[in-house]
Amino acid sequence: VKNRITALEQGGIIEGYRAIINPLQSSVMMPFIVNVETKAEHFDETKRLFAEKDETVTLIQTTGNCHLVAVCVSESVKTMRDFVNMLHKTVEGITYISAHSVLDIVKGSIIPE
Question: What is the pTM (predicted TM-score) of this model?
Fold first, then answer.
């Protein structure tokens, strides 16, 4: 098996490997969801700022009044709260923001593979 895998790697059939991390089992990664609504004139800037943050794993624009849903990770409830408070205080035009800890992933993955 080892020789076959080596041959597949050298032939370019296998290009790499990846780790699939379960954030609910990690002691250093707490997933949470952030819902954000902004004033229309600040929406694009808010999207850009959220997308730039290391905590943001996935950013989704949805229907509604300038609405974004962000899948994020932090180390703890405190760092989640600090992140959300920092965004609320520094990102102009946010009219609504809420954060929710992920308790269970029933189907699929919240962190892209």
Answer: 0.71
